Amino acid sequence: MKPKTQRLALALLAVAAIVAAALLALSALKDQAAYFYTPSDVAKVHLEPGAAVRLGGMVEKGSIKRLPDGVTITFVVTDGGASVPVRFSGIVPALFREGSGVVADGKFDAAGQFVAATILAKHDERYVPPQVAGAMHKSESLRK
Amino acid sequence: MIAEAGLAALWLGAALCALQLIAAAFAVRGQAELAAIVRPVAVAQAVLTAAAFAILIWLFVRVDLSVKLVFENDHSEKPLLYRFAATWGNHEGSMLMWVTILGVAGAAVALFERKLEARTLWATLGGQAAIALGFYAFLLFASNPFDRLDPAPLEGQGLNPLLQDPGLAFHPPTLYCGYVGLSVAFSFAIGALVTRDVGPAFARAMRPWVLGAWIFLTLGITAGSYWAYYELGWGGWWFWDPVENASLMPWLAATALLHSVTVLATRDGLRAWTLMLAVIAFSMSMVGTFLVRSGILTSVHAFAVDPRRGSFLLVLLFLYIGGALALFGARVGTVREGARFDPVSREAGLVANNLLLSAILGIVLVGTLYPLIVEAVSGTKLSVGPPYFNAAAGPLALILVAVMGAAPLLRWRRDNLRLLLRRIAPAAIAAFIALVAVKLAAPTIRILPWLGLALAAGLALASVAPLWRRNLLRTPLFVWGMVVAHFGIAVSLAGMACDSSFTVEKLVAARVGETIAVGPYQVRFAGVDPTFGANWQALEATLEARRGDGDALILQPQARFYWAPPTETSESAIHTAIDGQLYTVLGKATGDGRWQLRLWWKPFVTLIWAGGALIAIGGTLALIGRVWRGRTRRQEAFYE
């Protein structure tokens, strides 16, 4: 091969690889990005069961219930407007309590209950992700 | 008084840095008088920043509360090690460490670089000074670590307890050495573009510096991964957190650079591409610094949110990356492309390595920046997590592993596909046997870990194949380095696949006296007792783990409460066996006399970090081999 053809072939190969990677990335992004919802957003749009969702709001007072297995809890997340029932198996973070802010990653099951895989509670102000802090702030001001 | 001395040292360092830039610029233009001062100034500047950093450490160790930064992040009840390490457990201190390492890296080039042509060296030191100047400005105008408080408070606010761990003394400095060490590669590329001196000699000069930074980066990432694994108590070792990605991206670019610089050094190929990669690698370090330090992401790594800092860093980012790319665009036409090669050759294998690494880098970059861009543009909040990264980057990484097995068995310049197939056959057979054996042993295994285990078996064999029929004592050290590093990838990959497929998790609420089976262990819950440390108190569970008829192992996971600042953390207890780890976490009391316990049996999980260590050891062997050969060559040239 002449150097010029070789360079052209290399460049084409590189472009093909990058396009393939971009397509792979975009299709994965479309399916896998977890959007952030408040309970009011959930009430407005229809969410497919199984889609990755990040849910943020307040833990409703008096809603935390412990199931007999000792490790599963159910509670209700609210933002003043709407509310969503949540189920979680695991060890809840230290600052998780009724009336405080919470962000849960997970998905809805067929019955409309939100099954949380992880729970982040409002922590020390300095270590909360800004978008989460924003959502919590909004829901806290709604409560007042 | 001593804090003011630190600040003065920083200002003086900044002034010398400006002098270094000016002198280097004149030296490159042929002003011999100024050329002589470039090296000494680079060294003096490093000494001054190092002094400022040492002073800050001193203030932290002595808990000098009249300094604002010390007040905000230190506490007199903390053990010495954590007062010392708290120096960089905050924004200002970590930026000072950044600048210190930048200065020291420049000084190391000034002192030890002997292979590079003089003009290129001056241009390189000029580039290093240009980078440092921007970050000096950032420190002095937006992140002054030596600000005073008047009157001095009586007690400090303490450090985030998650950071109170020996990991803090090791992980950030190592990672920063790698991050900032890549600035040398960047400056080399700038130097080469300025003087148009790109060739094998330049590549041989640059290679040890890239290797050095890459070794530190590898160690820093490995250490950070293990730290997150045992400290967070989630049993995971990589979360695709944006901050983790910020360290992975420079590593991917540096790994690609390491391989393309070899093509340039050995065969004088990939000239422009190597320069481009050197620019990209440090650009990724700067992007990472921006992501972590600007406050747009918040995690345990991000300390304070100050929008001014974010914009300052963003300006620096555009200035340096844009400037370097503009220089690249203007000069790359004059860099003659080097030697050519066949589609079946070592060079072609390394090109495939570079393409795949770049594609993975692109995927990680897109996934990391996408949520930020979407939020900035439309206000929609979303997060991109492991499902995206695994689905998009996983398949490419596996192809990369296959290429990694084959490329070292190829000859430079041109080779024969049939001969390659014959050389790779044993490894391919091993991979195939592993593929069948794993599926028979674990029929439900998912596709990525399944292929991962098979490829790990193949790569383990293929990686040592270059030693086949070679006199091991006369094999050059850098060949050993490559073999060990590639073998390390196989080891790490096997650990990742085992952990993701064969981990057994038990989440229970147990009464004292109950026994829980997890993996090969019977774990008896013996009780919960209060305990305390220097600045915390805790509840500590006692677990007796038995395997078969063996003696009981005692594991004591804790739920800790720190009072400065008031925070609860969970301290896992881990037992390492030869074939995996038993990982235990204590949760909360359920109110009816039971306690939540979370237990994992993680087979061969330690291979992940053992592999990381092997990769770094391989890099070190290669570095020693290269530097040694360079020295003996120069001595021979001297005596001839």
Concise account of the structure shown:
The complex is a heterodimer of chains A (144) and B (640). Chain A has 144 residues and is of the alpha+beta class. Chain A contains 3 helices and 7 strands, in the order αβαββββββα.
Keyword list:
heterodimer; A: alpha+beta; OB fold (Dihydrolipoamide Acetyltransferase, E2P); 2 domains; 3 helices; 35% helix; B: 640 residues; alpha+beta; 4-stranded antiparallel sheet; 17 helices; 12% strand
Chain-wise SSE layout:
The complex is a heterodimer of chains A (144) and B (640).
Chain A: H1 3-32, E1 34-37, H2 39-44, E2 53-59, E3 65-66, E4 72-78, E5 83-89, E6 101-108, E7 114-121, H3 130-143
Parallel strand pairs in A: 1-2, 5-7
Antiparallel strand pairs in A: 2-4, 2-6, 3-4, 4-5, 6-7
Chain B: H1 2-28, H2 32-61, H3 68-73, H4 80-85, H5 91-112, H6 118-142, H7 167-195, H8 200-232, H9 242-267, H10 271-293, H11 307-331, H12 346-378, E1 382-383, H13 386-406, H14 417-441, H15 447-464, H16 477-502, E2 504-510, E3 515-518, E4 521-532, E5 536-547, E6 553-555, E7 558-563, E8 566-571, E9 573-577, E10 580-589, E11 595-603, H17 607-639
Helix pairs in contact in B: 1-2, 1-6, 2-5, 2-6, 5-6, 5-7, 6-7, 6-11, 7-8, 7-10, 8-9, 8-17, 9-10, 9-12, 10-11, 12-13, 13-15, 14-15, 15-16, 16-17
